[in-house]
């Protein structure tokens, strides 16, 4: 199993007012969300409302003289304010304590109203304090209940004082209390929903980022397995070197080469220095009627390798079997890698891509349909930018996974050695290839490399051609250098379009082609891509 079970994203189910309050109590126990900006603002509003209403009540009730009733009313409401301010929010905002404080506030306010002229009392404003507290900090149910209790309490006080209950002043006061309860409880509901939605979007973004990271890790693992397979102990180079070493014990040859037929004929092992003037003895490396490679041996002076033909053929049988196994294993590995790449690409395209696109649309809807405070909007816009970047990365990864497997530039450069011929220049490949280039750019890079090497072989008149550089998937630099005749880079020979073609190919993949040449000194062609 390549990946662990996916982490389910947070639920987006909507609940009613009471269910939402209960859900938030489970998600945010008392005191845990005390630092939310909107709760801090509500707390400041409550503080200002408490002291303002208390000041208005005390000052206006004392204008007609300070009596025992005025003192009791001021003491009751003042004590309630002091208790509210002194009590820690973690305790005050608990469910039981919250209901108790709302009830105590209503009772203290009604006592002050009863002691100071009933409906005409300045303490009718103070009764908004427990109503605001209950609705803003404890939700719709307690807020509306406190508002109704306040209105009913005022009616009872008015009846006890012999005042007309249905007069306009009472109706206005009762409606005012209920409006405060409904308004601030709904404001609290909206703010809690926005907080929850923001956290759900953040969690969903992190979930998708983690999943994308796991997919990217799996993709890199596939490439690493391919590299390990190429660098394993069983490979054509080690097999060819072993064959030449063992033959040297029984066959009198001065030098030899082993080649394999794999995307052309590639020399995989050499021993000694071949004599350019002598004709080598050649033997095919074959199995089941299929030729997989060849052996070329240059004899020592006065030695005839013809009499060793049967011995050489017998020695080449295990070599042929090893080559056949290598080709078969590489084919199986390439097929497995290709199928896994397709499967991962399909999962990225069909599951991850649409999910992240939906996430982006949800963020856009929130940003355009809701009035948000600047801090919340900034956070959501940051998340939206991250989602956009991840969507583009997913698209790039799908394109890479769907493309044909990358071709090693080292293998491509090595395979071109055969074009130098026996009479051609000395050819040195010194490229450090950590990982082959991306499949999307490997074809063009390989074509540029081949054109530059062939130009050096065929037109430069060089005695030495060197290919050097470093390659690491998304970035790299390769330089093809020769010590040939050179030419004037400011003029292009008529009818020759190789340099133009190389520049066009480099532009297609975002690479930079640098050409430097001096007559009589030589030529250097450099290809640079990506950022290293």
Task: Please tell me about this protein's structure.
The chain is an alpha+beta fold and 532 residues long. The chain has three domains: 17-197, no CATH class; 232-405, Beta-Lactamase (2-Layer Sandwich); 409-529, 2-Layer Sandwich (Heat Shock Protein 90). It is 59% helix and 14% strand. The strands form two sheets. It has a five-stranded mixed sheet with strand order 5-6-7-9-8. A four-stranded antiparallel sheet has the order 2-1-4-3. Strand 5, helix 13 (439-459) and strand 6 (464-472) form a beta-alpha-beta unit. Helix 1 crosses helix 8. The longest helix is centred in the middle third of the chain and has 63 residues, at 168-230. The radius of gyration is 42 Å and the shape is rod-shaped.
The value of Rg in angstroms is 42 Å
Helix fraction by DSSP (H/I, runs of at least 4):
55-70%
Walk across the major sheet and give the strand order.
Answer: 5-6-7-9-8
The total domain count is 3
Helix segment tally: 14
- According to DSSP, the number of beta strands is 9
Mean pLDDT: 77
Sheet/helix structural class: alpha+beta
Largest sheet: 5 strands, mixed
End-to-end C-alpha gap: 34 Å
């Amino acid at each position: 199993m390549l990946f662990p079970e996916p982490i389910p994203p947070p639920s987006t189910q909507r609940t009613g007012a009471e269910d939402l309050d209960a859900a938030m109590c489970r998600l945010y126990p008392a005191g845990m969300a005390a630092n939310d900006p909107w709760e801090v603002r509500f707390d400041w509003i409550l503080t200002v409302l408490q002291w303002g209403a208390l000041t208005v009540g005390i000052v206006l009730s004392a204008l007609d003289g300070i009596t025992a009733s005025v003192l009791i009313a001021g003491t009751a409401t003042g004590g309630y304010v002091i208790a509210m301010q002194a009590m820690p929010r973690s305790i005050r905002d608990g469910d039981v304590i919250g209901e108790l404080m709302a009830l105590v506030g209503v009772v203290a306010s009604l006592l002050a109203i009863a002691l100071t002229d009933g409906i005409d009392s300045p303490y009718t404003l103070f009764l908004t304090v427990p109503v605001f507290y209950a609705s803003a900090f404890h939700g719709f149910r307690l807020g509306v209940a406190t508002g109704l209790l306040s209105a009913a309490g005022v009616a009872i006080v008015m009846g006890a004082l012999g005042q007309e209950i249905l007069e306009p002043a009472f109706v206005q006061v009762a409606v005012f209390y209920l409006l405060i309860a409904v308004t601030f409880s709904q404001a609290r509901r909206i703010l809690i929903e926005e907080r929850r939605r923001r956290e759900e979007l953040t969690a969903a973004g992190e979930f998708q980022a983690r999943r994308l990271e796991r997919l990217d890790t799996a993709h890199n693992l596939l490439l690493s397995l391919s590299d390990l397979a190429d660098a394993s102990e069983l490979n054509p180079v080690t097999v060819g070197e072993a064959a030449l070493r063992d033959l040297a014990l029984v066959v009198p040859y001065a030098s030899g080469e082993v080649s394999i037929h794999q995307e052309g004929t590639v020399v995989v092992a050499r021993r000694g220095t071949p004599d350019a003037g002598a004709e080598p003895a050649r033997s095919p490396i074959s199995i089941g009627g299929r030729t997989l490679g060849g052996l070329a041996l240059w004899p020592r002076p006065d030695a005839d390798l013809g009499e060793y033909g049967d011995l050489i053929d017998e020695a080449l049988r295990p070599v042929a079997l090893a080559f056949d196994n290598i080709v078969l294993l590489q084919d199986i590995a390439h097929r497995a890698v290709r199928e896994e790449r397709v499967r991962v690409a399909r999962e990225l395209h069909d599951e991850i891509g649409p999910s992240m696109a939906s996430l982006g649309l949800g963020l856009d809807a929130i940003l355009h349909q809701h009035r948000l405070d600047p801090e919340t909007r900034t956070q959501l816009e940051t998340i939206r930018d991250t989602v956009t970047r991840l969507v583009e990365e997913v698209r790039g990864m799908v394109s890479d996974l769907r493309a044909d497997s990358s071709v090693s530039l080292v293998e491509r450069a090595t395979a071109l050695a055969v074009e130098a011929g026996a009479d051609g220049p000395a050819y040195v490949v010194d490229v450090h290839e950590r990982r082959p280039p991306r499949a999307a750019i490997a074809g063009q890079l390989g074509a540029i490399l081949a054109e530059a090497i062939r130009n050096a072989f065929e037109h430069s008149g060089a005695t030495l051609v060197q290919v050097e550089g470093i390659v690491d998937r998304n970035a790299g630099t390769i330089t093809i250098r020769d010590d040939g005749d050179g030419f004037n880079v400011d003029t292009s020979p008529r009818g020759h379009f190789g340099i133009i073609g190389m520049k066009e190919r480099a532009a297609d993949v975002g690479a930079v082609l640098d050409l430097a040449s001096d007559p009589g000194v030589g030529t250097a062609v450099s290809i640079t891509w990506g950022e290293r």
